Amino acid sequence: MSINFKALIVVLVIAATIFRLGKSVALTFSSEQDFSRRRNIWLVLTVTAFVSPSFWLFVLVAAPLLAWAGRKDSNPVALYLLLLHVIPPIPVTIPVVGIKELFSLDNYRLLSFCVLIPTAWRLRKTQDAEHIRGLGAMDFLLLGFGVLQLVIYVPPDLPDHSILLDSPTNVLRRAFLFFVDIYVLYYVISRFCCRRGAMTEALAMFCLSSAIMAALAVFETLRTWLLYGGLSRNWVEYAAYGSLSDFYYFRGGLLRAQASAGHALSLGYLIAIALGFWLYLRSRVKSARSRIAVTLVLLLGLLATQSRGPWMGAVVIYFAFSALGPRVLPRLTKAAFSGLLLAGVLSLTPIGEKFMNVLPFIKHSTQDESVDYRQRLAGRSWELIQQHPFFGDPLATVKMEDLRQGEGIIDIVNAYAGVALYYGFAGLSLFVGLMLVGLFKAYRRMKEMARIDLDFASLGACLVACILGTLFTIGTASLLNGFEKIFYVLTGLAAAYAYRGRLPKQR
């Protein structure tokens, strides 16, 4: 327990510093009352998590606090995004008498139950014309993908290799969890963020949350200490989160930071998206010192994750945003010069040299085994997809035993391959189609707004760039944890942006 208290002190000091220094930036987009309440809740939940020997004691404090905050906050989406990773997503099974397993609960689902679902209920009853009414094409694509997942049952990859059978009860459970985990998230964000102020405030709170995790990530890498690792040892006992050493992954001799994201890849992706949001938000911040400071914190945090897919995703976002704005050639030239300058400065430092060595296109990369695994996975996945192209093979994992890693899992580090393997091209069409429709709608509205409202067009360019970066990055990682949540956050924001652009008055 003592190591948890030491970690708590470090987390509180770093977070309090970021909150204090970032307050002036946050107040550009939020009211002081909302900011103070959100900050205090973040701090209370963090302290509660570190001192609670049981996850259920944490829930006892967090649930009423989140429900109260969701009702009081003028922008529940902003609250949700700030608290999305206040603690790592550690699933704990709900104990129920007479039933082997109900379902697991983690911070994501707790936020859904306490913040998103009540907000969805209030939105359902509102008659405000500024909110999307009814179901659109993106709703039907998402619901179609959900129905396909109910019809095609993919059994979990259990350590003992047993295959669980489906049942009517399990179908109801999966339908309920699809609603709680995915649809309600998309629904609330697509409906609530139709106002420009609500959308920009949500982006700002996500950037604030990511800045805290980025600062923590830098500390973790420099001190070789995962600050949130002790929580899992206190709350769960099974192998996936059983010991602190299971969390420690190194690349090029440096610890891959995780902060509260649950995995280095997830953290890298979250920070990459935050950088994309910041490309737009920084234009509304007057202080040059603040603009530079936030950018540096996010960049250093991204480097600390040593996650190559998110690194490249951030590059895609940066150049896409530069290409989508006005004066394309000067912006692209500036973007290229800035990238080369950053790479040059890093290459002159000992730490920068280590980071350069883990890039996938460097010949002496320290992670050739990782590249080899991805190549083998791609080849085997394509073989299995060709055998069941239309609706996939729910037992595909059984046929990939030779790809099982030392951690005991078959890591399908490609979201597209994962969907196509289990749900075929039918599922892949619905999955990718959802984001492509959002991308097309947002891009079209952005081009229209470029003639009458440059600021709103820049917001659209930010969303389009982040979607493009996501489409690239999920080809290098599974759609788990932060990847899944932000995937649906971005689709919801794209739908809200496209709808807002049709309204006669912009706010």
Q: What's this, in brief?
A:
This protein is mainly alpha-helical and 507 residues long.
General form? globular
Order of helices and strands: HHHHEEHHHHHEEHHHHHHHHH
Helix coverage percent:
55-70%
**End-to-end distance, in Å?**
49 Å
Spatial strand arrangement across the major sheet: 1-2
* Helix/strand structural class: mainly alpha
How many domains, in number, for the residues? 1
Query: What is the count of β-strands?
Result: 4
Approximately how much beta-strand content do the residues carry?
Answer: under 5%
Mean pLDDT: 85
Largest sheet: 2 strands, antiparallel
Q: Which runs of at least 5 residues are low in confidence (pLDDT < 50)?
A: 238-246, 361-366
Number of helices: 18
Return Rg in Å. 22 Å
Labels describing this entry:
single chain, 507 residues, mainly alpha, two-stranded antiparallel sheet, two-stranded antiparallel ribbon, 18 helices, 67% helix
